[in-house]
Every structure is written in structure tokens, then in C-alpha cells.
Amino acid sequence: MSDLIHYRLEDGVALIGLDREPVNALGQSLRCALAEACERAAMDPGVQAIILYGEHGLFSAGADIREFGTDASFAEPDLPSTLVRLTEIHKPMIAAIGKLALGGGLELALACGYRIAEPGARLGLSDINLGLLPGAGGTQRLPRLIGAESALNLILSGEHIDAERARLLGILDRIAPSAEALLDEARAYAQELIDCSAPARPAEAWPEPTEGLPDDFLARYRAEHEPRWKSRLAPRLVLSALEAACLLPQEEGLARELALFKEAEASRQSKALRHVFFAERESARIPGVSADIPLRPISKVAVVGAGTMGGGIAMNFANAGIPVALLELSGSALDRGLTQIRSNYEISVKRGKLSIEQVQQRMDLLFGTLDYADLYDADLVIEAVFEKLEVKQQVFRTLDQVCKPGAILATNTSSLDVDAIAATVSRPQDVIGLHFFSPANVMRLLEVVRGKATAPDVLASTMIIARRVGKLPVISGVCFGFIGNRMLEPYAREAHRLVLEGATPAQVDGVLTGLDLNMGVFSMLDLAGVDVNFLVRDANRAAIAHDQSYCRLGDELYGLGRYGQKTARGFYLYEGRNRKDDQEVVALAERLAGELQIPRRPIGNQEIHDRCLFMLINEGIQLLDEGIALRASDIDLVWINGYGFPAHLGGPMHYAEQLGLDKVLAGIRHFRQALGEYGEMWFTPAPLLERLVAAGHPRIERV
Fold this sequence. Notes:
A hairpin with a 2-residue loop joins strand 18 (573-575) and strand 19 (578-580). The protein is built from 30 helices and 19 strands. The protein has an eight-stranded mixed beta sheet, with helices on both faces. Strands 1-2-3-4-6-9 form a six-stranded mixed beta sheet, sandwiched between helices. Helix 2 (79-87) packs parallel to helix 3 and helix 21 packs across helix 23. With 703 residues, it is of the alpha/beta class. It folds into three domains: 5-265, 2-enoyl-CoA Hydratase, Chain A, domain 1; 301-476, NAD(P)-binding Rossmann-like Domain (Rossmann fold, 3-Layer(aba) Sandwich); 484-694, N-(1-d-carboxylethyl)-l-norvaline Dehydrogenase, domain 2 (Orthogonal Bundle). Helix content is 49%, strand content 11%.
């Protein structure tokens, strides 16, 4: 017997424990050992029932994702055929689910006739998050267990549900009173099944998965949800697999599911999403910093500034059970901030995400103050005041005087020089940038900006606390705009310039949203505030350098008081949330083009795509070359989680690799020539891009 399986026989029950730490990933080696153990139990006349469980508590988090897209994915015994064989064993088989049964792990449990879980277990078919569909019977067995509609919603959401909801849906038969009692309860359950001569598999709860639903349910479902799927392939394949479950015998449905899974696995979208999955894990690794470095304890946090950003930052820590002191200069500002925080929580109550008691627990962790002296015992202080260097430097001078030794001092600046802020204190090694994205209590991304003096333990400690409060931290070096906003500059520059040359804001945005970006440049600027964008740009014109006539359109709109959605007029007109094109903006662009002597012409969609995206990519490659970004995949995470770049394209760096780096370089060189003086000024290929193409290197990495 393999060391991946623990097998023992107790009173006619075979206990088969999965032992491939850390999560019992169902790779080829574990599949082989599992199949062998189950055959042994099936052939042993002394075995009357079988229990599958996780030897160290956790049942299984699913397939070994590293195998996808390789020969190992379907190396014998493959998971689909292994699970089919399990369903053919003529002895009751119980899945005892501890902690997790996700993806292939839940499919393994579904192949068992009976299921029991610990109270804290989480279950789900989250394959959709990797651009896949359940490929080992999940789309066929689940609808026959809980009905087509519930199965479809669970699979398409990728949601992890708790044990009680799983029981109510019909996925679980029982819930053990505790995690510690799970295996004992499973043994008792097995004995009950033996005593009553229960069948190996009970009758299907939903032999007709669409029973009770309209005849055109699946067609209606497609029509209702397809617009939200945009160009994503996996949801459409899931729906096709569910159709097979409803229309075909199970054996044929399983064959159809497997074919659809292989189509998804081979797709660029799944490859991109798997890239994102591994990128998130790699982003936690800090080169040159040991994983066992002693961390600075963070049990109390302070936030300076109770505005929208400061309040949102404070909520993250309160949500994680960490006390937060929130400082403002005036009582009225502090009251407004605390009122807004409570209002945000009350929205969650209305949506059923929090109880009133939970809101009060969080509010009790927030302590408002007008006195810097009250921050003396904070382990981490985050400054979230007005985005002006002198203002932030003054805050840090005060913090230097009042904060205890060893406290981490963080600035939430989105573009300013963290080193210049650190230079104002006597302990620059304790200073770091923590750039939260707005709304800070919602957005997952956190740029962790490492200053030249930032101590390694400060960096490691902030990365840990960031994940503890539910953020995805990505390390950046110090430069204007860090990773995200620095890349935004050339991306938005080309959008502005294209409008001066003859495109319209709606055309530019349409090309970008057609690529499945959440928003185009101009709708994004209207949402964030044309005024905010102007003030950031105006404060950093020296850092941006070169001629900036391309942004005259934004400057003019700022001068006209057209700040975007907040004033109902920006690059577009707004009636509530409805956006309308504005011919006045087009006329303004025509006038400015005349003043700047920019020839206007019809602009094709491909040119819009190439100029915006190639300049975005080029800047990202330059950031990597400079060492501002540690990895190309880190850049992808920033743009997916902070700027709405579609995850199923893998982020801008992965997208560039899929396009071909030679194509990107050729496009930049083309526009450098074709756009005359403007092209000569702005379309300079990143030296790293040129080196990669010259070497025939398909991946973006330092060479």
C-alpha cells in the first residue's frame, strides 16, 4: 500500500485515509493509490462498507492544478474513470468531509453514495475560477442530487458553501457535531448502513434534474446570464454540460462532460486563469527575505484620516477583529467618518452579509480620537490624508514623535515618493507604503511599496497582515505611481491622444470593454473624478516629463468644472447611472486638435487596441527591467485586481506573451514612425522588450 494512503479494517468497515499533504491534491500518484485501496476494499469479503477521509483532517481541495495542460492531467488512472469505478463498487461508501471538499475533492465525495461533514467544512466546485468546468462527474452527478437549477448556480458561482447549506441543498446527508467527532460519526453511520442492508448508492433524488422547471429553463438561463459572461468560455461550457445532464443518460453525459472539460483545459482562457492562480501564490514570496524571519507583532492599528479612504482602511482591520484608532483633526470630520463606516456596514446588513450584532462588534473595535498621543501604542499606523507631499511629511514628523519604537509607519500615497516621506523621520527603516485602492474596504489589491530603507521584517510583517485582512499584497519599488498608476499614465495618454486625432471617447472605451476590461479609460476617469486625475497629474508633471499636450482635453474639462459622475458631466453626460455620449466633448477635442495642429482622421479599432495596450505593456516591461516590479506576474495581479483587466486574459503581461512579444515590439516601432514627432517622443520600446525579442524569448522576465 502506498504511503499516500492509510488503510485499515475495523469491524467490517474499511477506512481509507488520504495522506498527501498539504491539501490531498488528487494528482496521479494519489489517484493511483486511492484506486488501489478502493479495489482492495471492494474485493475483500470482510469489508461491508468503506469510509474515505483525510488523514490529517482535510478531505481534499481538488485536483493538482500543476497537472492541468500536461500529460499528467489524464495519466492513468485519470480522475473521471477512477470515480466511475468507485460508483460501481457494490458496498456503501461514505465520504467523511473534514475542512474542505473543493473541485475534484467534492466530485470524489459525490462519487460516494453517502456524505457526512464536520460543521466547519466548506464545499464547492470552484473549477470555473480556473476557466474550467468540473470534469470528473460534477456536472452530471450534482444535478441528479440537488436539481439542475441549484447545481447550475453552485457551479457557475464557484462559491464555497458551508456544511449546513450543503445539507439543506441535499449534498450532505449528515453533519457531525464537531471536527473531532467526524470519524466516529462516520463509523456509526457506516454501521447503520450495514445493519439495514442499505444499497451502495441510494436512489437519485433528482432522476429528472429539470423536474418542476419550465421546459425552456436552460434557454432562458442562457439568455439571462450570457451578457454578463462577455467572452468567457467556461460558463458556456458549464451550461452545455448541464444540458447533457438533463437530456442524456448519465454515461453519455459523463462522456460529454469530459469532452467539454478537455476543450476548456486547452483554451487560452484557462491557461491565463491558471497563470493568475500561481501568480497569487508566487507574489507572497519576497526574494532575499527568509520565510522564517521574525515578524513584528501587529495587534493594534491606527489610521490617520477618517475620510473615505481612511474609513475604508479602518474597516479592513475591524473586520479581522483588530482594534483600530481612527484620528482626525476635527470632531465633525471624525463624526462624519465614523458615521460613514456605520453606514457602509448597514448596507452589508441589508444585503444579508452581516448581522446587526456583527456590525456592533466591528464598531466596538473602532476608537475615534483627535489626539496623536492616543496612537502611542499602535503597532501599525497608516496615514491616509490629502495626497500632497508636504502634508504627509508633516504627519510623519508627528508620528515619529508619538509612536512607540518598532511601530510600522505606513503611507497610503498612490503616487508620491515614499523615500521622501521616510526621510522626514528618524526611523526610515520602519516606513513603508501601503497603497489601498478605493473603496478600500472592497478592493482586494494592496500595493506594498518598499522604500530604499524599509527593513526586511517590516516588509514581511506588512505582507502577512495584508493577507490576514483579506488583501492581495503585491510588492512595488518606489517610483511615480508605483506599478499600477505608472502604467495607467501611458495607457490613458494614448486614449486622450486618440480622441484628439479623431476617435471618440465612446469608441476608445468600446474597444477596451470589447476586450472585457471592466471599464474604458474615459468612463473610469469619470468614475474616479476628472478633478482627481487632473490634480494628481498636475502635481507630478515633472515626473511624467515630455510634452503633455495630449492631456489638454482632461485639463479643459477640469477647467469647465466637468468632474465626471459627481457633476453629471465629464467625458460623458450622466442621468443617474446612465451614461450618454456628449457632442460638446467631441467639439472640444476638434478645437484643441486645431490649436495643437494635430491632424484629425478616422481611427480604426485595431489602432486603438494596439496603441493603448502596447503602451501599457511596454511600461510594465520597463517597470520589470528597473526592478520596480519583482515579477511580470505581479504586474498582472495589479492590473487584474486594481484596474479591471480581465483575469481570463491573464493580465497585460500574460496577454502580451499570448499576442507575441515580437508583435508588440513591431507595433511600437510602427507607431514610432507613423505618428511623426509625437511617435518619436512617446513610442520608445522598453530595452528589455527589445532584448527579449532579439533572443527569441517568449516570456517576459529579466534577461
